[in-house]
Amino acid sequence: xxxxxxxREIAMDxxxxxxxxxxxxxxxxxxxSVVAIDRETNQxxxxxxxxKSMYEKTNDRIKTIRPLKDGVIADFSACEMMMRGLIKMVxxxxxxxxxxxxxxxxxxxxxxxxxxxxxxDSAEHADGRxxxxxFEPMAAAVGIGIDVEAPEGNMIVDIGGGSTEIxxxxxxxxxxxxxxxxxxxxxxxxxxxxxxxxxNMRVSERMAERIKINVGSALADLGNDAPEDYTVYGPNRxxxxxxxxxxxxxxxxxxxxxxxxxxxxxxxxxxxxxxxELYADIVKNGIWLSGGGxxxxxxxxxxxxxxxxxxxxxxxxxxxxxxxxxxxxKNINNFSFLMR
Length: 340
What we know:
Number of helices: 11
Radius of gyration: 21 Å
Mean pLDDT: 92
Helix content: 25-40%
Number of strands: 17
Strand content: 25-35%
Low-confidence stretches: none
């Protein structure tokens, strides 16, 4: 940014699990959506990676909060603090005067007006002067490189931490969309419950997340792509004595099957209401997967087998929404789907 520049421009994917910020076509912040707060003073102690390192390890004086739940803001005050803290991590450059902040923020397509207002208010309280919102499936499509303005149907399935967004896009708009509050967090919860029920072991949310990353699978048979078993350490939930358990991907595929089936059903439901001409385009173009959930082993193959349409995983699924929001930021005057 120049010395006399009066506007800073950033694009943000405000996610349940992670928040990504782009500036000048570069990802400048990629941090967990966690904030640590002093209970006595109600002041922010840490944000992002530092706050996550405290998560589930704090004493009575410190509380760690994930301000977003199911893709939307659950704690307005904590979200505002988190956004301020993460925006401060963005390189500011040199300015003669304090610049105003223009922001494009990705939001779930199933958000209500109240939820959209909560995001706008949080952004404005975090010094945003000119705030635009973009639905996450649209941002993901732009980030993947799809021509969203073309008279052609494309379907995006964006599986984040708190919600799964499914949208059919054509002519610069969302023709139909399905948003379900089932995504990565629910898979993590399934794993916690499974470890407790089948292995009598208590595992933290963070440990369940590591199990999901290391041996998570949507299929019980991955063939040559099968990961090695993952060793989990934790206390017996009855005796509190230490335990060591080797977890294989097949048992994780079994324990998360019901949740993955909800995503299967949501995709089918979205296809049912898709106009026939756009449906034909989708069969030809395939369906795109983005978000962290797209990295679940075998998910694309499972969906393709059940639905009969090719599924493609975005080149950088974790950052597709942020990349799309960054492109939208440069085309504010050209993209009619941006919301103010």
